[in-house]
Design goal:
The chain has three helices and no strands. It has 84 residues and is an all-alpha fold.
């Protein structure tokens, strides 16, 4: 996948994950892209390419979204423990 497409798909996945996790107000576009790209790596590691859909970018988007949600869950747990 091209670098530009990876950034766009990662940004969309990070934005969707931040909305689902309730962190959209505290994250900007750059952090959404970072969360989406890192989420894509995590999702690829966890799922191992099991999601294969007809448009290739859609399977990347779903994988990055799942990974980004996992990443934000971990960040929420770490931040919650450091506050206490």
């Amino acid at each position: 996948m091209g670098f530009i497409v990876m950034i766009i798909v990662g940004g969309i996945a990070g934005w969707l994950a931040s909305m689902v996790m309730g962190r959209d107000a505290s994250m900007g576009i750059l952090l959404n892209i970072v969360v989406g790209v890192v989420g894509g790596l995590i999702g690829g590691f966890l799922l191992g390419g099991y999601i294969n859909l007809s448009p290739e970018w859609l399977s990347y988007l779903i994988t990055a979204f799942i990974g980004a949600v996992v990443l934000l869950l971990i960040l929420n747990l770490v931040q919650r423990k450091s506050v206490r």
